[in-house]
Design a protein that fits this description.
about 1100 residues, 40 strands, 5-stranded mixed beta sheet, Chloramphenicol Acetyltransferase, 7 domains, 32 helices, alpha/beta
Length: about 1100
Amino acid sequence: MTDELDKRIAGLSPEKRAIFEQRLKKIATAEDDSNTIVPLKDRDSAKLSFAQQRLWFLYRMDPDSPFYNMSSAWRLRGLLDIDVLKNALNSVIQRHEALRTTFCMREGEPIQHIAPLLTAPLPVVDLHDLPATQHESEVQRLATEGAQQVFHLEKGPLLNVKLLHFQKQEHVLLLVMHHIVSDGWSMSVFMRELSTLYRALITGQSDPLPALPMQYADFAEWQRDWLQGEVLDKQVHYWKEQLAGAPPVLELFTDRQRPALQSFKGAHATVLLDSTLADAVNTLSRQESCTLFMTLLAALQVLLQRYTHQQDIIVGSPIASRNRQEIETLIGFFVNTLVLRTDLSGAPTFRELLERVRETTLGAFSHQDLPFEKIVEELKPERSLSYSPLFQVVFTLQNASTDTMQLEGIDIERVEIDSGVEKFDLTVFAHETSEGIRFLWSYNTDICNPDTIERMTRHYQVLLEQIVAHPDTSIADYELLSSGERQQQLFDWNNTATDYPRDRCIQQLFEAQAARSPEAVALVHEDRQLSYADLNTRANRLAHYLIEQGVGPDTLVALCLERSFDLVLAVLGILKAGGAYVPLDPGYPQERLAFMLEDTQAPVLITQTSLQGVLPSHKATVLCLDNGDPLAGYAEDNPAIRTESHHLAYINYTSGSTGKPKGVCIPHQAVTRLVFGANYVTLDASKTLLHMAPISFDAATFELWGALLQGGRCVLYPEPVPTPEGLKAVIAEQGVDTLWLTAAFFNVVVDTDAEILGSVKQVLTGGEALSVSHIRKALQQLPATQLINGYGPTESTTFTCCYNIPGTCDASLGSIPIGRPISNTQTYVLDGQLRPVPIGVVGELYIGGDGLARGYLNRPELTAERFIANPLPDTPGDRLYKTGDLVRYLADGNIEFMGRSDDQVKIRGFRIEPGEIEATLSRHPQVQNSLVLVREERAGGKRLVAYVVSEEVDEAFTARLRDYLKETLPEYMVPSAFMVLDAFPLTPNGKVDKKALSAMDLAPSVETGYVAPDTPVEEALAAIWCELLQLDRVGIHDDFFQLGGHSLLAMQVISRMNAALNIEFPLRIFFEFPTIAGQASRIAQEQTENIDEELEDILDELEGMSEEEQAAIVF
């Protein structure tokens, strides 16, 4: 090789070097007969190419689909000879066998059938009477109509040409082909040859086109024969290595849930990158020895990474696949799709990323011979009818030097048409023009809205502007939002400031209210009432007692009381003494209560006589409020203790991932901001609120102080566990107009009878994601009730955001938004670098404002980790709470909850860290490993399932594990089901395969042995249990709660039992008889007692009947 050749090779661009290497391979294999395409002898049964075979399969699945049509439109201005155009058209058809091909099955295999002759008509649609103002719209209508036509591959022809006649010198040519016989390159060949033949015919010349060396069927047959053995193995090895462990789907933002079956409905948006920016992008490409394609692709992948937070980004890109000279002039389906996978991890600079993209692109280009269909066949990626395999986003670049149609004496202009089809989630077409780079963003309208794509195109341009200016900047540091978007998200949507008594404490506000309305009813409990004056007086006596015990500002006082007047006066009395209350739920295990008492070092514990036995040993002074009159003689005036709004009001304990609960410290100001100046609910003296939540649950904060600080009535729910029937009675008897329900209990109420809530004006529900179906049902039946989705972690004092649900729900709605921040609260959706993310993009929710907790008790490291310094300049407040909740902004400013960044879950309104349960399980001597996951119930709820690795195999082991957890964890944290395994299943990367665990059947593990239902009642009960517990079978001695049941599921079982058996089975009896055998026996007993009562009534009537009455009845 000469030095001159060396220099010329060295000067090649990367893309030209790859082509050069391809040509060298062709030279090297020129002597190999297997690499030579030989024309077929039998042209009546040619095989399909790999690409054709895939389209044939898709066609057979949906033969009426137009989604693989290729269409174009050309405006022709000048004197057009229609007959000559028709002859030129048919000459092209006769020249290319692909245009005369149909498809059929023969002996179980698809084959190509080539017609020896095909004459296509050229219908002319006369539109000369159509007003000029309607020309463009009619072209679009007819072009779209043509693009949507159905081609029947067995019949043909598989192209359709139509001419629209507007005036003598104005026509539009519409061309549609099926992709199975054509591709983008072929469309150019078709139009170029049509132009050449028209010119020759109109000028009287002979056909100037050289004979074709072969036809598409020859290529298809050759491809099948050539691509096997060593050739195939080498290509497959590259792609298997390149795509090993690839993510099955790019979790791109969607405005709607992805449908189960792709519809391919599409629309597009067009954007021009001006010449200045286009030149800058080209300059950067040359500097980095990259092509424009590579630079634009790298920028697109950065955008996709920022939108999805995925580091492994795969984009498809079509390639002409005409790397053999003899096929360059053929019409047929040659195009292949390259799978371009880029690792964006490690926050590389753009220049570094561009090198990665360059290597990936050149590698793919060098291995383009393996058809995409064959890659899918060999790799067997996870498949779904809802998205395409391997990639869902496509990028393609068309260079400026593209062929256009030219007819003799005719001015030609291409007409952009919208086919209404998009085969992927998103396809980005880039086209170099003299004005710059024109982008067409084609998107699936089933999942995206136009304004979403408009924002995405804007962010792409903003990104490119920063890339060309600062290519050495980390891709993680580029901004996406414009100044207007930042203003909207950070300030406009957080303009929540309202007046409220921010400097006053809870007890001060209550005392002021008691002075204004001393005789007004403050509390109602069953048939008893307590006025504001009486409540204030009783609480004062307790406060003076506590002051005597040394309680003052920020002193923690524990209380363990059932819901009662004493509970409320204890809370109020503690606050009046300056202290902060620490609720202890009497249902908690002693070990957990002991930890809370030790953690708080509470000097005083207020309780009642019946609960003293559940409390662990402790050092606190105990006050039993029901033990005589322990507060007799204490002063009844308001204490003169000076507390300020920054002092603590209470501490609520929530689940902790380290295995111990954590105490959240709430100041007075956070509570007053919740119930004054509220923009999410109406609170005033006319309202009656229901207090039903446990005092240890922060919804109680809203229930109590939303009433008592506004002069309203607070009704105490009389039973420990609410039921739909009990709720109905309380609402009716007490006139409750405002209440809070956990999402799970709300669902139970709606399933039972939504009319229970018919007289309630304001229903707040939440604690976990709302069920859209239950909300729809409630809206239909409760036209006078305002439903409100309430969201907020304990660290932001009950509510952060609320969403007033409109009276109708969009049919495509996938979830109920959590809304906007409530008064004096700010919310920010940020990425990993604490920058605002675009609308529609998932980020983590950070909360600011006056509702923030002080932090975690005795946990300074955790406090510093979760309550961070505010990183957003000019926004209010110096701290933000890092929630761990993944959310996104909707276009209207409402926030949608998307999940968690960690494993934390909410079940029945309780916040649970699975890590705390796992840590407890790990302390059991017979547990080697454990994992706790959440599984969805068919009834719409969630359940905890513990997967345990242990050598124990006896049936009683899971019962022992359950009892072990009950000693430490509250009931709601004890998994409802246990699965004992020899080992955890692993993914190819060596991680625990959680998907495989979740797919395992949850078979009941009971110690009694299976006994099948026998009587009709037992069979009816078993059917209900199986449906709600998601089990294939249950025995009559299986315990409902050991099978995974809980109180809310029990209510659903009872509701269905009562309806199916026409009985009234109370919840209390269900807990007494948690087996089918016990319940069936109890039902039989009830029915027997009812029959006995009826018999007794009849006998009583007969025994008192006179002879005359007997005679009247008998005769």
